[in-house]
Write a structure and sequence with these properties.
six-stranded parallel beta sheet; binds FE(4)-NI(1)-S(4) cluster; binds iron/sulfur cluster; alpha/beta; Rossmann fold
C-alpha cells in the first residue's frame, strides 16, 4: 500500500517551492518527493554499505550472522571498496568536466573554433608560471599550447605529481609524500581505484581509503582546479556584480530558457546567441518582451559568477522550475540532471535538449555540441525556443513570488583586488579576530532533508560567530534566497564580521562559484597558509556539506579533509557497516592528514563544533579569541 505523502510544508522552507509542489499535485505531476516516498524504506544493507556486487560469485550481504562474502571479504573490505568507488565516481565527474575545458582550449589553439577565445590572458600567463610553463616574451597561443599540454599530461600516467601541486604548502606536500598519497595523474588514480576494488586486489580497508584520499586530491588539486582555471581563462575571471535568484527570475512575458548541469561551455554560447538582436526582435514580434536565460545548479552558478545571469534554483528546484509552465526550453550538459526532467517537460510545451554525447536522455532533443559548431547550434536552439513560445499555454503559467537580490563574483582574484592587491588585509582581519575563521558551505540538496533548511541555518549560525562563510554549488541558491548574499546581511553577522564586510561593502557570505570552484577555496587556503608559513591544517577554517547527496560531494569532502580541512557532513555516507572505516573517517584521519569528518544533523551543534575547531586553531597560531 502506498504511503501517505509528507505534507508540503515539511518538504521545503521556500514559498516558491511550496507553490510549485501544490501546482504539481493539482496537475498530477510526479516529483522527486513522490519517488522518494515510493522508494523508502531503503535496503538496510545498502545503507550500511555492506552489500557487494563486484562479482558474480555474489551479490553478497555481510551481516553479523554471515560476516564474509563468498570470496571471504569482510564488512571492512566491502565498505571500503564501496566507498572508494562511490567517491571515485565523483572525482571522475569533476575531472572529466575539467578535461572538456582543456579540449576547448585545444580547439582555440588549433584554430578550430572562433566561437571560443582566450578572454583572460593575464590569468593564462599567471597559471602558466605556476605550472612551470615559460612565459617570458612568448605569444599567447604558444603559452596556451604548453598549458594545455601540461594539463593533458596531468590526466595521464607519466608524472610523479600533478602540476598544480605547486600551490600546496610544503608541509602539506610532505604529509602526502609520507603517506604515499601524492596524486600522480588524474585518470591514473581513478583507474587504479577501479583496479584495487576488483575482487582479490586491495583487501585492506585502510589502504583502500588512503588511495581514495589520493584520488580525491587528484580531483581537488587536479581535475576540478583545471576546470576552474581554464573556465576563467576562456570565459573571464569573475568579478563582483549583482543579480537575482529564485523561481521569479523566470518571466511570464519573456521567452524563458533554462540552462542546467555543470559546464559553462554550452551555456556561454546559449547566452551569446540569446543576446543577438535579430532573435530578440523575433521574440518581440511574437508578443514576448525579450529572451530570458536563467540558470539551475552549477551551470547556473558558472553563468551567475561570470555574467550575472539570474539563478532560478538549486537541485530540488529543477523539476519545479519547469512546473511554472513558462519554460520554453531547458538545455542541459551533464551531472545532477534528474532524468525525470524529460517527463516533467513532457507535461508542458517545454523542449528538453541534451548537448553532450556522454550525457544523453531518452526522449530528449539531442544537439551534439562541439567547439567548432557551438555558436551555430546555440543559435538553432534559441530559434527553436522562440518558436516554442507560441505553444505556451498561458492558463497553466504560475510564477511565484518576487526575485531576491544576490551579490556574486567572488574569485580569489577579485577578492585580492578588493583588498588592495594582496591577501594581507584578510590575514590581518583574521589575526585581529574580527574574522575569527572561515567555513566553506558546499554541496547539494537531498529530498530526505527539508529543502535548504540546513544549508541556510548553518550559514546563519556561523556568521553570527564572526566566521566568514564561502558558498558554492547548490548552497548558493539556498543562502541567496535567504537574503544572505547581499551587503545588508551584515546585520545578521557578529560585530567583527559586520565591521570588516561593512567597510568593504560585501556580504558576510561570499558566493565563490560552482562545485568545481571549490578549487578556489583550496587555493585560498593554500595562499593563507603560505602567507603565514604554516600548513592548511593549522588554519582556523572548516568545510561543510549539510544536505549533500552526490558522489561528487564525497569527493569534495575527502579532498578537503585530505588537504587538512575539518569537514562537516549533515548525514553519513553509506559506511556505518564498518567500524574500521567509520572510525577512520571521523577520527583516524586526524592523526594521518590533520583533519577528519564529523557528522551532525543539528546545525546549531555543527556550528558549535566548527567554532570549537576554529578556537583551537587560533590558539595554535597564537591568536587571541
Ligand atoms: Fe549537484 Fe553542482 Fe550537488 Fe548541486 S551541489 S546537487 S553535486 S549541482 Ni555540487
Ligand atoms: Fe561477494 Fe566477494 Fe564477489 Fe563481492 S567480490 S560479490 S563479496 S564474492
Amino acid at each position: 500500500m502506498a504511503k501517505e505523502p509528507r505534507p508540503i510544508d515539511e518538504l521545503t522552507i521556500w514559498d516558491d517551492a511550496k507553490a510549485m509542489l501544490r501546482k504539481a499535485k493539482a496537475e498530477g505531476i510526479e516529483t522527486v518527493y513522490d519517488r522518494l516516498n515510493q522508494q523508502t524504506p531503503h535496503c538496510k544493507f545498502c545503507e550500511l554499505g555492506t552489500t557487494c556486487r563486484n562479482c558474480t560469485m555474489g551479490p553478497c550481504r555481510i551481516s553479523a550472522k554471515h560476516p564474509r562474502g563468498v570470496c571471504g571479504a569482510d564488512a571492512d573490505v566491502v565498505v571500503a571498496r564501496n566507498f572508494g568507488r562511490f567517491m571515485t565516481g565523483g572525482a571522475a565527474a569533476h575531472s572529466d568536466h575539467g578535461r572538456d575545458l582543456v579540449e576547448v582550449l585545444e580547439a582555440i589553439v588549433e584554430g578550430e573554433t572562433s566561437d571560443y577565445k582566450i578572454t583572460d590572458e593575464d590569468k593564462l600567463f599567471r597559471v602558466a608560471g605556476e605550472i612551470g610553463v615559460d612565459t617570458e616574451g612568448r605569444a599567447v597561443m604558444d603559452v596556451a599550447r604548453d598549458v594545455l599540454e601540461t594539463f593533458f599530461a596531468d590526466y595521464g600516467s607519466r608524472k610523479k605529481e600533478i602540476s598544480l601541486l605547486s600551490r600546496v604548502p610544503q608541509k602539506r606536500r610532505d604529509i602526502w609524500a609520507k603517506l604515499n598519497v601524492t596524486p600522480r595523474g588524474i585518470d591514473r588514480e581513478i583507474a587504479e581505484m577501479m583496479h584495487r576494488t576488483h575482487m582479490g586486489v586491495d583487501n585492506d580497508a585502510a589502504n583502500t581509503l588512503l588511495h581514495a584520499a589520493r584520488t580525491s586530491l587528484a580531483d581537488g588539486w587536479g581535475g576540478s582546479m583545471i576546470g576552474t582555471e581554464l573556465s576563467d581563462i576562456i570565459f573571464g575571471t569573475p568579478t563582483p556584480s549583482m543579480s537575482t535568484a529564485n523561481l521569479a527570475v523566470i518571466k511570464e512575458d519573456k521567452v524563458n530558457i533554462l540552462v542546467h548541469g555543470h559546464s559553462p561551455v554550452v551555456s556561454e554560447m546559449i547566452l551569446v546567441a540569446a543576446r543577438d538582436p535579430e532573435f530578440v526582435a523575433r521574440a518581440k514580434a511574437l508578443g514576448a518582451t525579450g529572451i530570458n536565460v536563467v540558470g539551475l545548479c552549477c551551470t547556473g552558478n558558472e553563468l551567475l559568477m561570470r555574467k550575472g545571469i539570474p539563478l532560478a534554483g538549486n537541485h530540488l528546484m529543477t523539476e519545479l522550475a519547469i512546473i511554472t509552465g513558462a519554460v520554453e526550453v531547458i538545455i542541459v550538459d551533464y551531472q545532477c540532471i534528474m532524468p525525470s526532467l524529460v517527463q516533467v517537460s513532457g507535461c508542458y510545451h517545454t523542449k528538453f535538449i541534451d548537448t553532450a554525447n556522454k550525457a544523453r536522455f531518452t526522449g530528449a532533443l539531442h544537439y551534439d555540441f562541439h567547439p567548432d559548431t557551438a555558436l551555430r547550434q546555440a543559435r538553432e536552439i534559441i530559434s527553436l525556443a522562440i518558436d516554442t513560445y507560441a505553444e505556451r499555454d498561458p492558463s497553466r503559467v504560475e510564477i511565484p513570488g518576487e526575485p531576491v537580490d544576490v551579490m556574486t563574483g567572488f574569485s580569489n582574484e577579485s577578492v585580492t583586488a578588493a583588498l588592495g592587491g594582496s591577501l594581507d588585509p584578510l590575514v590581518q582581519a583574521i589575526a585581529a579576530g574580527d574574522i575569527r575563521g572561515a567555513v566553506g558551505i558546499v554541496g547539494c540538496n537531498n529530498p530526505k532533508i527539508k529543502h535548504d533548511s540546513m544549508n541556510v541555518k548553518l550559514a546563519k549560525e556561523l556568521i553570527k560567530k564572526d566566521i566568514l562563510v564561502l558558498v558554492t554549488g547548490c548552497v548558493t541558491s539556498s543562502v541567496g534566497k535567504a537574503g544572505l548574499l547581499v551587503p545588508d546581511a551584515i546585520e545578521l553577522a557578529g560585530p567583527g564580521l559586520k565591521k570588516v564586510c561593512g567597510s568593504l561593502g560585501i556580504p558576510p557570505v561570499l558566493h565563490y562559484g560552482s562545485c568545481v570552484d571549490n578549487a578556489r577555496i583550496l587555493q585560498l587556503c593554500a595562499a593563507l597558509a603560505n602567507a603565514l608559513g604554516v600548513d592548511i591544517s593549522d588554519l582556523p577554517v572548516g568545510a561543510s556539506a549539510p544536505e549533500w547527496y552526490s558522489e561528487k560531494a564525497v569527493a569534495i569532502g575527502l579532498y578537503a579533509v585530505s588537504s587538512g580541512i575539518y569537514t562537516h557532513l549533515g548525514h553519513p555516507p553509506n559506511i556505518l557497516g564498518s567500524e574500521t572505516v567509520t572510525n577512520l573517517a571521523v577520527s583516524g584521519l586526524e592523526g594521518l592528514v590533520g583533519a577528519s569528518f564529523f557528522i551532525e544533523a543539528d546545525m546549531v551543534k555543527a556550528a558549535n563544533m566548527l567554532d570549537e575547531r576554529i578556537k583551537a586553531k587560533r590558539k595554535g597560531l597564537g591568536l587571541s579569541e
